[in-house]
Every structure is written in C-alpha cells, then in structure tokens.
Amino acid sequence: MNNKIGIIAGSLRKESFSKKIAKAVADLQPEGISFEIVSIDDLPIYNQDFDDLNDVPESYKTFRTKMKEYDGFIFITPEHNRSIPAVLKNAIDVGSRPTEESVWENKPAAIFSSSPGSISAFGANHHLRQCFVYLNLLTMQQPEVYIANISEWFDDNDNIKDEENKKFLKSSVDAYVKWFNRLKE
Description:
Elements: E1 3-9, H1 17-26, E2 33-38, H2 48-52, H3 58-68, E3 72-77, H4 86-96, E4 108-114, H5 122-135, E5 138-139, E6 145-147, H6 163-184
Parallel strand pairs: 1-2, 1-3, 3-4, 4-5, 4-6
C-alpha cells in the first residue's frame, strides 16, 4: 500500500513558481509513496460561522475529506509581505476546523519556500512553521528548503534548467521521504 502525500502550492496565480515547483516535486515521486498536487483555489475565506451554524460550504467539506486521505504534506510557499500568502493561510484554517477534527494533526510536513529574490521567502517559511507548531504538523527541521532566484529556474516548458537545482530539489524531497518514513515506523 502506498502512502499518500499531498503537495500544496500556496498561490493562485496560473504561472506561479510554487505551482511549477509542486509539479517538479510530484515528478520525483519515490517508490512506495504517491504524490498528489492539491488545489486550494476554490476555498472561500474561512468564517467560523460556517461551522457554528452548520452551513459549511461544499468546497470545505470536499477539501477536509480529501486532506484526511493524506499521510503527510509538502507545502510550497512564496512570500507575500514577509509572510505566507492569504490563500495558503486560508486553506490551513479551513483544514484546522472544527478543532477536534483538524486534518493536520500528527502528519509529517515539509516546507519549501521560494522567491525571485535572494532571501528565498525566509519570512514565509518561518511564519508557516509557527502555524504548524500549533496545529501539531510534524515539520521537517533539516534541511530547511529555501529556493532563491526562482524566476531563473524554469525554461519555457516549466522544466528545471540547471542540473544543480534538480539535484537540490531531489535531495530535499529525499530528505522529506526519509523524515516521513521515520515518523511512520
């Protein structure tokens, strides 16, 4: 039986670098584990009233059910104003409610952050880690995965151009798989 890992790209933009990284990660799927890219595009902004008044949007129900099928997650995030994008925080909030039914509880996670600049979305990476502490997502600590100058990574067909970048991404995925397997033993 394969373990299922959800890959969540924290961007809505059609040509987002996070979505390109997610596809590249999905292509590195190791034996015994299946990777699947998860869409967060159709989730309305979280409102506690939806749960309190039993008026939960269908997209929330579908998302929550789907997230429970995954054994772990790789989150890929850009940085918006030194933090995580609102759409990613919204997806995390939707999955965390109702509190006693959080889809994130005790699941191995990794954070890959990227930026066209040289800081590599350091702020977003660490803000996401803060959220995960509270949600009890078991976040891989090392290696930390920061991708600088992401706008130079892909060719016109969304393939990674540089062999060293391919090796870096593969080593990051391999480290997560090792982390995942260690926690699932």
